[in-house]
Write a structure and sequence with these properties.
Strand order of the largest sheet of chain B: 6-7-8-3-9-10
Distance between the termini of chain A: 59 Å
Number of domains of chain A: 2
Distance between the termini of chain B: 38 Å
CATH architecture of the largest domain in chain B: 3-Layer(aba) Sandwich
Number of helices of chain B: 9
Order of helices and strands of chain A: HHEEEEHHHHHHHHHH
Helix content of chain A: 55-70%
CATH superfamily of the largest domain in chain A: MetI-like
Radius of gyration of chain B: 25 Å
Strand content of chain A: under 5%
Shape of chain B: elongated
Structural class of chain A: mainly alpha
Chains: A mainly alpha (297), B alpha+beta (361), C mainly alpha (327)
CATH topology of the largest domain in chain A: MetI-like fold
Number of strands of chain A: 4
CATH superfamily of the largest domain in chain B: P-loop containing nucleotide triphosphate hydrolases
CATH class of the largest domain in chain A: Mainly Alpha
Number of domains of chain B: 2
Number of helices of chain A: 12
Helix content of chain B: 25-40%
Oligomer: heterotrimer
Largest sheet of chain A: 2 strands, antiparallel
Strand content of chain B: 25-35%
CATH architecture of the largest domain in chain A: Orthogonal Bundle
Strand order of the largest sheet of chain A: 1-2
CATH topology of the largest domain in chain B: Rossmann fold
Number of strands of chain B: 20
Chain lengths: 297, 361, 327
């Protein structure tokens, strides 16, 4: 049997320091989270219940808050657009942005990561420096450009215009992120493929591309969510309610319903958040990597 | 199998000269090691033979065929990378089968060859695994399998053992050598480890700063180093160097350093003196004897420190303010500060020109 | 020969779509903003301008900048003050609070699961779609249904100190503005800092422990000094972001107030410079596109000056590797 070592008794100072340490951690890291947690809890609870006490204790379970899914929403005489076409608009915007961003930034990211050309360093600096041009400040000029191209007030064409702008705004960051994924593939692997008998193109397709699939997946999710929750561009450029997206619809409804029907607002909010929740619960690691690696406010 | 000829090959990356005017002839079925410190251009040379880098100048020939401009896939070379470069998204089986699939070899033929190579390398039970589930030694075998399965004309190995632990390295060293002799594939092996090169290769090309220093079989490299760099690089502990002048007094030749004078064998002295008088003498730690009383033509010194190695000991001896290392069997007790004398084996000392570093004898 | 040209061209073929998109979404608007800033473009001559870029109805003028610099627009000073309060307060939350937070999460809390849970929780404000963030805040501060006033009362804040409306009565509205954006910013800072803390070699911390340092001393003497570059990075990067960010303010005050964001933001004294510029162009009854461009041009210039300074201070490489530790 091992002989027990005689431990020096833990001093009172150490205990106090430890208590202070955890107290500090709680005050700084836990207490400020109470609003955040309670907000999430409220969103979940309120959407399925009638009255709630203190915002988080439900009184009755009901699906009445979800009635917007099958019947139009009315406020006095005003009838809001049906939720499904609006959802489709949102989906159209999000998918359009995703497709464009993935295509453009995968090409660009590969060139930046693995090709030699004049001005490569300068181009990378320029992409980062774009952050200095506050993108949403450019809305006025983009408004003029949309008008000039005849894309303003033209229903789906306006949404196409917004897709172009939104994708353009996301592309520098997405390119930067996917470039990181290309950078992470060792040159050895590409060389090995060449020695094994690949052409450059074949090596790209059979070895490089499968390895950056996580990166492509990441920027897909990333740009989908970013298009899905885009507010400002639609709010500014779309006047016809028929071409609203969900964020803009919700924006207008908060003001109208906040005094009478928090339940429906919560349900609508939860409905809108479903894709975000799905993506974050399934590919959290991937997205964390982006948020950590990519520089995005 | 083929013989490989590098004819005046140079490779520059912008202003950096990685390889300068390299000439090498590698015989059919020969095992050649490219040896040198890191950054000496040996990996660049290997990548040029593979076809990944194109030489800035010069030609590369496989037998009589000029392959300088051929892409890697048309050269039929197999290569093992330092990092092994296994495709992480493919199983071991698919990794090994990959080169054959690219050649459009029939399915059952692929299967037969993959299994054959797997058997040769004893990795049959690993075929369904992913590279990330393998140990370093197993990954190394898989990489070797992928290189061998296409029955390459030339096998290129880039520091294949450097990521293995010391024990495994010794095992794999013997195994690689056996495999190479069995398959008789012309092999180029890049390493910075002289023991690997000495123990495995038929011939060694020592490189430094992009230039070939000497190209010879291991024993010749050891016994007749062409210059100071090779002399100092090969052998552990390294050769001792002492600067001095060659002087002729009454028809006898002496090596005169700051701290001692040594009488040379007449014929040797004559040859050296005919070339230069400023020289550097070199002798290997094992080519000197320590004696405890003064004899003629010995060097006096003091014991500085003794490093026991088990079978042998290394004795550090202070001569003036220089320290030389002597490898010897443990014998009489040596204590630091003790006076001793060194008796050199006069047939096994080397002389280099001080100006150029070239060997004279 | 043809092959050689194509090899040189290949990267540019790959880059072309990206460059085109950047020109469309960034470069053209920046140039156009510069031009518009010197015009009197408004709803009156807007249609003419759209039809003909060189219409005579749009005049070149310096009036916009006179309005800004000689305070002919009395609201400019107030917008400037609010922006200063906003940027400085949120920045200190980002840089300093997030630092302490990260040390607490990544170093003090040793339990991996708890640490992970806290990190994910702190990410929520950033991950949540903006409009939902606005929605839940609108609920949270609601005096009747929300939880905020109840929590504050529970914490012992006397009822007399609580505002009738967090949204509308300054300075409460300004506190709200800072807190709402502070959470999002703290997420950003936390991401950068925790990554940096995790990359400090454990040997260094163990060495300090052996030397007899307490956790606080390690935080103070080892971790904080090593986070010098990440801190500078967070501050510089966030300054740029904050100057131009008004989306959350627009969404919360706009939706909470029933849509007329410009009036409400003014009344609540949360009209930051960028929102002011936006409202001058797009709010009902305004549509002063020229003046709004001039206002945003000021921000563009500030941004460019700042990023050039950062490139000078950090060098490109360091700016790109914010989580790297420099010993």
């Amino acid at each position: 049997m091992r002989k027990k070592l005689k431990m020096p008794s833990i001093g009172g100072k150490t205990i106090i320091l430890n208590v202070v340490k955890y107290l500090l951690a709680i005050i700084i890291a836990v207490i400020p989270l109470i609003p955040v947690w309670s907000m999430l809890l409220w969103l979940a609870v309120q959407s399925f219940s009638g009255r709630v006490i203190l915002g988080i204790i439900p009184s009755e379970v009901t699906f009445k808050n979800w009635r917007f899914l099958w019947s139009p929403i009315k406020m006095g005489l005003k009838e809001y657009p049906n939720i499904w076409p609006v959802t489709l608009n949102t989906l159209f915007l999000a998918l359009g942005v995703t497709g464009l961003v993935v295509f453009v930034s995968t090409l660009g990211g590969y060139a930046l990561s693995r090709m030699e050309f004049k001005g490569r360093m300068e181009l990378m600096q320029f992409i980062i420096a774009l952050h200095a041009f506050p993108s949403i400040i450019l809305l006025i000029a983009l408004f003029v450009i949309l008008n000039n191209l005849g894309l303003y007030g033209k229903g789906y064409m306006t949404l196409v215009g917004i897709i172009l702008i939104k994708a353009g705004l996301e592309i520098p960051m997405a390119t930067w992120i996917i470039k990181g994924f290309f950078d992470a593939i060792p040159w050895d692997l590409e060389w090995a493929a060449l020695v094994d008998g690949c052409t450059r193109w074949k090596a790209w397709r059979t070895v490089i591309l499968p390895l950056v699939l996580p990166g492509i997946g990441a920027i897909s999710i990333f740009s989908f969510l970013s298009g899905w929750s885009e507010f400002l561009l639609v709010f500014t450029y779309v006047e016809d309610e028929a071409y609203y997206t969900l964020p803009v619809l919700i924006y207008h409804m908060i003001g109208e319903f906040k005094f009478i029907d928090w339940g429906m607002l919560a349900a609508l909010g939860l409905f809108f958040t479903i894709p975000t929740i799905i993506f974050f619960s399934t590919s959290q690691k991937l997205l964390l990597r982006i948020y950590v690696g990519g520089i995005k406010r | 199998m083929v013989k490989v000829i590098l004819d005046n090959v140079s490779k520059f990356f912008g202003k950096v000269k990685a390889v300068i005017d390299l000439n090498l002839r590698i015989g059919d079925g020969e095992f050649v090691a490219l040896l040198g410190p890191s950054g000496c251009g040996k990996t660049t040379t290997l990548l040029m033979v593979a076809g990944i880098y194109k030489p800035t100048k010069g030609k590369i020939l496989f037998d009589d065929k000029d392959v300088t401009k051929l892409p890697p896939r048309d050269r039929n070379v197999g290569m093992v990378f330092q990092s092994y470069a296994l495709y992480p998204h493919m199983s071991v089986y698919d990794n090994i089968a990959f080169p054959l699939r690219l050649k459009k070899v029939p399915r059952n033929e692929i299967d037969r060859k993959v299994k054959q190579v797997a058997k040769l390398l004893r990795i049959e039970e690993l075929l369904h695994r992913k590279p990330s589930q393998l140990s370093g030694g197993q990954q190394q075998r898989v990489a070797l399998g992928r290189a061998l399965v296409k029955e390459p004309d030339v096998l290129l190995l880039d520091e294949p053992l450097s990521n293995l632990d010391a024990k495994l390295r010794v095992v794999m060293r013997a195994e690689l050598k056996r495999l190479q002799k069995e398959l008789k594939i012309t092999t180029i092996y890049v390493t910075h480890d002289q023991v690997e090169a000495m123990s495995m290769a038929d011939r060694i090309a020592v490189m430094n700063a992009g230039k070939l220093q000497q190209y010879a079989p291991p024993t010749e490299l050891y016994n007749k180093p062409a210059n100071l760099f090779v002399a100092g690089f090969i052998g552990a502990p390294p050769m001792n160097f002492i600067e001095g002048l060659i002087k002729e007094i009454n028809g006898e030749y002496y090596f005169d350093s700051e701290y001692f004078k040594l009488k040379l064998v007449n014929e040797i002295g004559e040859i050296i003196a005919s070339k230069t008088s400023e020289t550097i003498m070199g002798f290997r730690p094992e080519n000197a004897k320590i004696i405890l009383e003064e004899k003629p033509n010995t060097i006096q010194g003091k014991v500085y420190v003794v490093e026991p190695l088990g079978k042998d000991i290394i004795v550090n001896i202070k001569i003036g303010d220089m320290i030389v290392k002597i490898l010897t069997r443990p014998g009489a007790e040596l204590t630091p500060g003790q006076n001793i004398w060194l008796q050199l084996d006069m047939k096994k000392i080397h002389f280099f020109e001080k100006q150029t570093g070239k060997a004279i004898i | 020969m043809a092959l050689k040209i194509s090899r040189k061209m290949l990267p540019w073929i790959f880059l072309a779509p990206m460059l085109m998109m950047i020109i469309f979404s960034w470069i053209a608007p920046v140039l156009l903003t510069v031009y518009l800033g010197f015009t009197d473009l408004s709803s009156k001559n807007f249609l003419d301008f759209i039809r003909n870029f060189f219409t005579e109805n749009v005049h070149l003028t310096l009036e916009n900048f006179e309005k800004i610099f000689f305070a002919k627009d009395p609201y400019v000073v107030e917008a400037l003050t609010i922006t200063a309060i906003y940027v400085v307060s949120v920045l200190s939350i980002n840089a300093i609070f997030a630092l302490v937070l990260s040390i607490a999460i990544a170093y003090f809390v040793r339990n991996e699961i708890v640490s992970m849970l806290l990190r994910v929780s702190w990410l929520i404000p950033r991950i949540m779609p903006g409009i939902i963030y606005a929605l839940v805040w609108n609920w949270f501060i609601d005096p009747k249904y929300g939880l905020l006033n109840t929590l504050l009362k529970f914490a012992g804040v006397p009822e007399a100190l609580l505002p009738e409306s967090w949204l509308l009565s300054p300075p409460y509205s300004q506190i709200l503005m800072i807190v709402v954006n502070g959470y999002v910013g703290a997420s950003f800072g936390m991401i950068i800092y925790t990554a940096a803390i995790k990359s400090i070699p454990t040997d260094i911390i163990n060495a300090a422990l052996v030397d007899g340092a307490s956790d606080f001393q390690i935080a103070r003497h080892i971790i904080v000094p090593l986070l010098k570059w990440p801190m500078l990075f967070v501050i510089s990067w966030q300054t740029l972001s904050l100057l131009s960010s008004y989306e959350y303010i627009l969404m919360i005050w706009g939706s909470g107030g029933g849509g007329g964001y410009a009036g409400i933001a003014r009344a609540a004294k949360v009209m930051v410079w960028s929102l002011y510029s936006y409202s001058k162009a797009f709010a009902a009854e305004e549509h002063l596109y020229g003046y709004a461009s001039a206002l945003s041009l000021i921000l563009v210039i500030v941004g460019v000056v700042l990023i050039i300074t950062y490139f000078k201070i950090f060098g490109f490489r360091r700016l790109m590797e914010p989580s790297r530790i420099e010993v």
